[in-house]
Amino acid sequence: MKLIECPRDAMQGWPDFIPTATKTAYLNQLLRVGFDTLDFGSFVSPKAIPQLRDTAEVLAGLNLSQTKTKLLAIVANLRGAETAAGYPEIQYLGFPLSVSETFQQRNTNKSIAEALAEVAQMQNLCEQRGKELVVYLSMGFGNPYGDPWNPEVLGQFTQKLDALGIRIVALSDTIGASTPETIIPPFRELTAAFPHIEFGAHLHTTPQSWREKVEAAYSAGCRRFDGALGGIGGCPMAADELTGNMATENLVQYLQEQGVPTGLDLAALREAQRMSAAVFAGH
């Protein structure tokens, strides 16, 4: 079981700039919890995501000497990937590849074909630099634009990523459209068809729907989950009425109920929750 904490996703759309020192202190607390991976920042245009323009400064302040947690940075193009790959502390580069043509244009100003060509270049870069590319299939559970969606579409995308040597693929519920009916078939089919690929779930939920979504993904074979403390965040590029991220504390609760060991320091997690409430106060 891998839990990926995503403060980057919580922060990126936050209306008030969170000071660099505040971000750094919060991330250092999250590093004490024992998550598998911390999705900590992004190397994208400051015009697109002004909140994360200080990712390099934040990285310089992280205490990585006593943590097993690995760092993941989101990139939107090859240029960002080259920047991120230059930092030895970063192990994973994450790239959002949409199965919706409309959203791919909206999110990265590229067609799916252009984005796939760039994914191939990023994968080569990662192989050269000893990094691992994580591809998020955004709009992974349906989209509001009328673009085709079904498990077969996800399978076709995964086949292309598999051919490039990509080994971590996260299905992403960019707008909170997922239901158990759209979660179970893709995970069931993909984990069977591509046993050598690690499939993750990046789910957006409401307080009422989180449990059924986690249960659906877990029962269908998913063992990698993204979350954000407090359920804060979403995708600012979707420009729709958004549900929040999957709340990490809910994920932990579900796994504890199932008797699944999380390996987390629960005292450090509680302190991180307290800090999160302070970081994201006032809205």
UniProtKB/TrEMBL annotation:
Gene3D superfamilies: Aldolase class I. GO terms for biological process: ketone body biosynthetic process; L-leucine catabolic process. Transmembrane segments: none annotated. GO terms for molecular function: hydroxymethylglutaryl-CoA lyase activity; metal ion binding. The keyword Lyase applies. Residues 1-270 form the Pyruvate carboxyltransferase domain. PROSITE patterns: PYR_CT. It comes from the Bacteria. InterPro entries: Aldolase_TIM, HMGL, PYR_CT. The keyword DNA-binding does not apply. Keywords: Lyase, Metal-binding. Belongs to the HMG-CoA lyase family. This is Hydroxymethylglutaryl-CoA lyase.
